[in-house]
Design goal:
Blueprint lengths: L2 H34 L9 H11 L3 H37 L5 H32 L2 H43 L1
Helix pairs in contact: 3-4
Length: 179
């Protein structure tokens, strides 16, 4: 093979790798900037609300009230989740210090417990308010919708654990066979 042909192939490969690296850096930079932007407004997609409104056969007035309640609830829970993240970060920062203050950690844990309680009370109030807006038939459908959502969440939480159990079981069997 000619020396200049090898050299051209090498230059082409370097240019291709440089282009790929630049594309990766741009993508990472874009995602970093996107994650740092504060969220404004409701974080829940409108499609889910529209689907629920169709499923429950809501009137226009009920649909407006549902939308307002959902937006308020999601904004409230978003603020609560932000506070929880801050508290968890403060705990980790205190634990990583050379001399952790046990009383400070205890007070942070109590604040986290209080925030979790507020979250649960907000959820209960939200569901009770939704219940008061629905007719009996609509409320029955709403309960079925929530049960489906809970089953999906539990299924998504269980799947990684089951995969881990299968992996750990196969690892144990292999380790027993090797001994």
């Amino acid at each position: 093979m000619n020396y200049f042909t090898k050299y051209r192939i090498l230059i082409g490969a370097v240019i291709l790798l440089a282009a790929i690296n630049i594309a990766i850096l741009i993508t990472l930079g874009f995602h970093h900037l996107k994650d740092n932007q504060p969220m404004v407004g409701p974080i829940e997609p409108d499609k889910q609300g529209q689907m629920l409104a169709r499923e429950l056969n809501l009137t226009l007035e009920q649909e407006i009230q549902f939308q307002e309640l959902r937006q308020g609830y999601f904004l409230q829970t978003q603020q609560n989740k932000r506070k929880l993240r801050e508290k968890y970060g403060a705990i980790m920062q205190e634990l990583s210090s050379t001399s952790s203050n046990k009383t400070l950690l205890d007070s942070m844990v109590k604040e986290i417990g209080k925030l979790h309680m507020e979250q649960q009370y907000a959820t209960i109030d939200h569901f009770l308010t939704l219940q008061s807006l629905c007719s009996d038939e609509q409320y029955h459908k709403l309960q079925q919708h929530f049960m489906r959502m809970m089953n999906q969440e539990q299924r998504h939480r269980r799947e990684p654990m089951q995969r881990n159990r299968r992996f750990n079981r196969s690892q144990r069997i292999d380790s027993l066979r090797n001994n």
